[in-house]
Write a structure and sequence with these properties.
Keywords: Signal. It holds the Pfam family FlgD_ig. This is T9SS type A sorting domain-containing protein. With about 675 residues, this protein is mostly beta strands. Helices cover about 5% and strands about 40% of the residues. The strands form eight sheets. It has a five-stranded mixed beta barrel. Strand 1 and strand 2 form a beta hairpin. The longest helix is centred in the N-terminal third of the chain and has 11 residues. It is globular, with a radius of gyration of 29 Å. The N terminus is likely disordered.
Length: about 675
Amino acid sequence: MRRLVTTLLCIAGVSLFAGSAMAQLYKYPPGPPYRSCPDTLTVYDVQQTDTTLAPCHPATLDTVWGVKGVIVGMDTKASAYGFYIQMPGGGPRTGVLVFSGATNYASLGYAVGDYVAVYGTTQEFPNPNGETEIEGPDRSQSTNDLIVRKISSGNPLPMDVVTTTQLNWVPLVSQGEEWEGGLIKILGPLRVARTSGSPSLGTNSFLVVHTSNPADSVLIDGNNLTTFSPPAVGTIIDSIVGIPTQRTVLGVNSYRVQIRDGNDVFLAAPPNLVDAYPIEDNVLRLQFDRNVDVATAQNPGNYSLASGIDGSTVDAAVVEGGAGRFVQLTITSVLNDGDTETVSAVNIGSAGCPTCLMSQQNRTFANGVLTIADVQAPDPVFLPSFDDRSRFAGAGTTAGIRLSFRGVCTGAYPTLYAMQDEAGGPRSGIFVFGPSAPMVPGRRYLFVGQVQEFFNLTEGVNNVYLVDEGPGVIPAPAVLPVATLRDTTTDQTQSVVNGEDYEGALVKAAYVRITENRSVSQSFFVAGDPGVYSDTILVQNLNGALTGYDSPDSATTLSVTGAMNFSFGTWRIAPRGPSDILEHGLNVGVPAAGATLDFAVAPNPARAPRLTFSLPSRGDVEIAVYDLQGRRVAQLARGNYAAGVHAIDWDGRDAGGRQVGPGVYFYNFKTGSDVRTIRGVILQ
């Protein structure tokens, strides 16, 4: 709705919202009321604070329309995104950051060289001693109410040549202000003067000086827009291209030049290996900090795997697109999915210096493309201490090893998305935070990043590569009792079904009752199970997914579907929208006897259990057995069954007729849109 309002404002030219909440978001026209300003401002108007030179300089939080410029750089590193625009002619105060929060415009088809018009709000962030930026009027990172209109593509980039004196790095000195946000070039010869020491420079940052004027140093930032390892102290650089910004890093506020990738540093030097991860079980994708020499990069003999000692091999190497920074390796691995693997690269030259060969560099990752069940399987090391966490997460709340997993997007909550294995079942769901592109429910994705335990919620984070692989199948929600869903007990023996087993997965609480009437858009509690109503669980308005929903009166009977979320020590159901809530009426009970589904396993534990189920009417039924890794062990039923009670005996053998080992298994029952899961134990 805000985007529509913004568009109408743009068409109307001048609209005032005095005395309303909207007035706080849209101050138009910009600047104090005594100025006569055009409808459309320039980047120079935004950046020039001297109102004698730019009478229409907007005040903080003023709305600006149609600020035009060429995109000269993009911030595509998770999880806060943006891009820089500059007036085509260049010059001082002609560049500015467009901050887009959780929206990565590169994933929407925008690229360096596009000429765009931006509609938003201006501010200095942080204020003072921050960077001037244009952002969405609501100033919320999780929503995108910017308007960006592409006018043309493939335009030449403006670039100003500046000296080390003009960008001299002295903390809290503002002489770099006039070049902030624009594309500049510093001519050499430049020498790397420092990569560490005090005051701190920040990660992947270094100081350079001109060899003829070593008194003036410039801080080069190789971490904000890219990942670039600083050259060794004393290295001579021909020139550097980048975008100046003002920011505070490790307590030091200063101007720094952000390079967009390693190709912005012109020197005779080899590339550096900055990332590696699987994109298929037999394909790795390697990222270097600069364009590589094709001949040396496509020599498979220049790569090796740590598991090569056990027989793994690198069979082929191809530079993506025939040129650039990415190389795909075809491998044969003897490791299991999830095992720790390390790839090494050596003797690879850069495109600018094919004879500058890199020494051996390594990157470590989890082998193979994992299922979400692989990621969610509990780490046996922590279970004895009552901590159910992924073995791929880092210590505490830190992110763990680089990994890749595949699943279907089942729900979109701004900045947070639910993914699930298409087969469904226990341990099949996960939330991912701040992916590099918006995810669409019903589409299958390859997600590459890391996993962390965010206050005991397992999340995929720090997404570096996301591939939309086309339509997927959203699994039916698992219908479970409220008592099961709300159970926060850490199950050391993994023999009890509880909320942890369905973290991030779609679940359904059927015929529950609202416990109290809440205001519009508020989360609310429901009680279950039918006939008892002794257990409660929160129906959560996660990131505004239920905005506008007016929960009915207390004692109203509902069926609620949503992704299982964990927050503040409790499990809650997060509907994807109001349509996930089905209202049955006031004090409505469960359907009449014989009209409900039943599914049971007994005895449990057992060597050969019996599975029973009842159907209120004829229907298709599937029953399968899964192990802790989410792999299907046996298919026990698949067909059309008449109404009534049915029983199936399982002899404990898998699909190949082999006796399964003792341990925990999941019995998955599905008919129509209803899914029931029971955890069982097979004895020796």
